[in-house]
Design brief:
Strand order of the largest sheet: 3-2-5-6-7
Strand content: 15-25%
Region (Disordered): 70-129
Helix content: 40-55%
Order of helices and strands: EHHEEEEEHEHH
Protein name: Heat shock protein 15
Family: Belongs to the HSP15 family.
Domain RNA-binding S4: 5-71
Biased composition (Basic and acidic residues): 70-99, 116-129
Structural class: alpha+beta
């Protein structure tokens, strides 16, 4: 392990982003928070720091356990951080909500044919008036 690692390099090594460029873009865009505040790409990561990282629909809140500037396999990358209990619970709750809302939506079995498209357009015109 190393003594100090840049934030973008650590996020890449911990496999939160596929490339360092994507990590840098997220940090500069204010998406990644280091100890509750925005950080610069060159910020040195310290063991025990709390980092909030967006991942698709989810936001991970992790505590830094170890430092590394090399990207390794996923099992080794998971040893670099520990997710907080609140973050894991929130992610599970939100995932369950998304799953339930997707079940409630009815997906059409096929695309509308010409007659149905005309009916849809007629309906939309009536709504605009």
């Amino acid at each position: 392990m190393v003594d100090s690692v840049r934030l973008d390099k650590w996020l890449w090594a911990a496999r939160f982003f596929k490339t360092r460029a994507l990590a840098k873009k997220a940090i500069e865009g204010g998406k990644v928070h280091y100890n509750g505040g925005r950080a610069k790409t060159s910020k040195n990561v310290e063991v025990g720091a709390l980092i909030r990282v967006p991942q698709g629909w989810d936001v991970w809140e992790v505590e830094v356990v170890a430092l590394s500037d090399q990207r390794r396999g996923a099992p080794e990358a998971r040893e670099l951080y520990r997710e907080t209990a609140e973050s894991a619970e929130r992610r599970e709750r939100e995932a369950e909500g998304r799953r339930l809302s997707n079940q409630a939506m009815q997906h059409p079995l096929k695309r509308p044919d010409k007659k149905q498209r005309r009916e849809i357009q007629r309906f939309q015109r009536q709504q605009d008036e």
